[in-house]
Amino acid sequence: MIQRIQTIYLVVVAIIAGILPFFVNLWYDQKGIEIYAANEVLVSIVFYVIGALALWTIFLYKNRKNQFVVNRLNMILNLFLLGLFVYRSLNLSGETNVSEKGIGMLIPVFSIVFLALANRAIKKDEDLVKSVDRLR
Questions:
Q1: How many domains does the chain divide into?
Q2: SS (H, E, C) the chain
Q3: Fewer CB near the terminus (10 Å): N or C of the chain?
Q4: Distance of CA 29 to the CA centre of its chain
Q5: Which residues pair with residue 27 across a beta bridge?
Q6: What is the tens place of the pLDDT at every residue in 6-22?
C-alpha cells in the first residue's frame, strides 16, 4: 500500500538524492570553486539512479520482498557513491591548502539511513502479513 511509512522514507530519499545534490555543493576545488553534482557526470548519474530506484521501490508495494531487495541494492549504490566521495576527497589536489568539503558529501549517508528505516518498515509489514496468514 502506498500510504505506509516506508513510502515517506523513500520519497525523502528520492528528494535527497535526486534534487538536493544539484543545489548543495559537494566539495571545493583547489581554487575555492564550489563543485556540484551537475559538474561531475558520474556523480550526477549515480544520484539520478539512486532517486529513480527510490521512486521505483515505492510502486513495488505489492511485492514486499522485491521492495526489500531493491532497497538493499540502493544502499549498495549509496555505499559506492560514498566510497567515490571518500576517494575524491583524499585525492583532492591542494589538500594542504584547502580542507573544506561540502555538506553534499553527507547525502549518501542520509540516504542510507532513510533506506534502512524503509527496510525496517517493510520487514515489519512482511512479518505482520505472515502472522495474519498463520491465524487463518
A1: 1
A2: CCCCHHHHHHHHHHHHHHCHHHCCCCEECCCCCEECHHHCHHHHHHHHHHHHHHHHHHCCCCCHHHHHHHHHHHHHHHHHHHHHHHHHHHCCCCCCCCCCECHHHHHHHHHHHHHHHHHHHHHHHHHHHHHHHHHC
A3: C
A4: 24
A5: 35, 101
A6: 899 999 999 998 888 88
Tell me, yes or no, whether 134 lies in a domain.
no
CA gap 3, 33 in Å, rounded: 42
Cell numbers that stand for 32 in this block? 575555492
For residue 68, tell me if it sits in a domain.
yes
Assigned domain for 135 exists: no
On whether the CB atoms of residues 92 and 26 are closer than 8 A, the answer is no
**pTM here?**
0.85
Successive 10-residue mean pLDDT values, the chain, 136 residues:
83 90 78 75 89 92 89 94 84 58 82 94 87 72
Q: Is residue 48 part of a domain?
A: yes
pLDDT of residue 119: 93
